Amino acid sequence: xxxxxxxxxxxxxxxxxxxxxxxxxxxxxxxxxxxxxxxxxxxxxxxxxxxxxxxxxxxxxxxxxxxxxxxxxxxxxxxxxxxxxxxxxxxxxxxxxxxxxxxxxxxxxxxxxxxxxxxxxxxxxxxxxxxxxxxxxxxxxxxxxxxxxxxxxxxxxxxxxxxxxxxxxxxxxxxxxxxxxxxxxxxxxxxxxxxxxxxxxxxxxxxxxxxxxxxxxxxxxxxxxxxxxxxxxxxxxxxxxxxxxxxxxxxxxxxxxxxxxxxxxxxxxxxxxxxxxxxxxxxxxxxxxxxxxxxxxxxxxxxxxxxxxxxxxxxxxxxxxxxxxxxx
Length: 328
Description:
Residues 207-229 are annotated as: Disordered. By secondary structure, this protein is mainly alpha-helical.
């Protein structure tokens, strides 16, 4: 069991998660470096932004939350951070698909202390007021979850404007295979099991042309991406151009912050850097080299790169300025 103090901290984290949520969750995980083996918390922190992108499988963040507990232990501090990840809102691209996906694997999360917690969704989603209230309540008073997936719990408690997703990427309507149920502590009929044995990674992330808070989509939205490109909107292709600023990465002092691209494809082979200009240049180069971005995206990236250079700052506000300039 986790303490009430830890639970309150989670509520604060969840309430703030909508803005810069990838960095917030990443910093929370990074702060667990006193647990597990040296470097494990940092490695897990580096994996967290990817599972909150719109194109990520909705089961991936539950798998990562389980891994956090498996590797770092079940100390209340660890459980609190894992709960924050389970409850965190996954990004949504309103230009492509405003309907969120929610994990339909009855075996996830596997950690008992994480079960019954349901996620936040974008406030622009119809019915989000119900789901977001349920999410906040579930952090301290989890829903009954025996034999149920997160999708089943969400549906049973009044929110149906979502798509069920298994860990292999298969999707279905919200009600497909779901059991009927009640609220926190209520009896809920078990659903038909969903085969979610093999995780998958969805690689393409397409971004909107202006700052919208949340962005990104998966390969099923290619038509929307093409329409955006025809209108001269930035299309970042296979990548997300966002960067992160994190204190105390592996090998760094606890008070030493460094920059790194969030997207694994952009960051491949790149070490974190104290100088943000190194990382923004990497992002812009990769848009051409590997991301298949359109010219509007490349131009937007160079403009954001110039902005960062003109600021001359080297802190979290620097990463935020770069990301916001690109529509995040």
